[in-house]
Amino acid sequence: MAKALLGYVGGSDPRLLAEMRRLQQRVQDLESELVRIQAEKDALQAAASHDRIMESIDANQAEPALT
């Protein structure tokens, strides 16, 4: 019964195996792209945070340097 459910009739279908390999590769590619995009997002958030900190510093209100 289990063999019938898996489509096992005299051996594996080469088209099915090829499609499974193609889909597995696609999943790996998408996972890699997700990791890359998350790293890019983190870098952009860090840069935006740094910009906000720099904008919050008011140079006109800063104390003069001691000479």
In short:
The protein is mainly alpha-helical and 67 residues long. It has helices spanning 2-5, 14-56.
Helical stretch count? 2
Low-confidence stretches: none
As a percent range, the share of strand residues is: under 5%
The separation of the N and C termini measures 90 Å
Helix share, percent = over 70%
Q: What is the number of strand segments? A: 0
Radius of gyration of CA atoms, rounded to a whole number: 28 Å
Topology:
Blueprint: H1 2-5, H2 14-56
Keywords:
67 residues, mainly alpha
Give a written overview of the molecule.
The structure is a single chain. With 67 residues, the chain is mostly helical. The chain has two helices and no strands. The protein has helices at 2-5, 14-56.
